[in-house]
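1st attempt posting a full record on here, be nice pls
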Amino acid sequence: MSRALKIMKWDVIFTAAVLLLLVLFWKPILRFAFHDLPFMGESFDSAVWSSALSCKSDHDCFDKEMACLRGPMCRDLERNHLTVGTPKATVTRLIGEPMRTAKNNCFDYELGYCSGLKIDTDYLRVCFDSSEKVTNVYHWQS
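the predicted structure (as tokens):
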């Protein structure tokens, strides 16, 4: 068999394997790419967090929301700063006052347009128990 045919054979096998993996695992791949990946990768920085959505004009606000400056810090916040049992006062000192208070004693913080096709706003939700300690932290889309 000639060298060109061997190379072409391995190209076909490789392409078939990649296509098979995509067919079998397309849902987890898309979930990771659109739902998880935008919320990881950067360490929490309080200066960046607090200035991320402060803006001078409507156009400036839109640009900052689309840039999703807060989103990549979410995983670090969830895992290292807003752990279960953290007092509510520490949360507000760390990431500021919430954009709104949701049902069940939860705070919502706007992240911007981070995930999916960037057509819905993403939020960080921090929930507290009756003793004002963190019980759950997650991001969600409106």
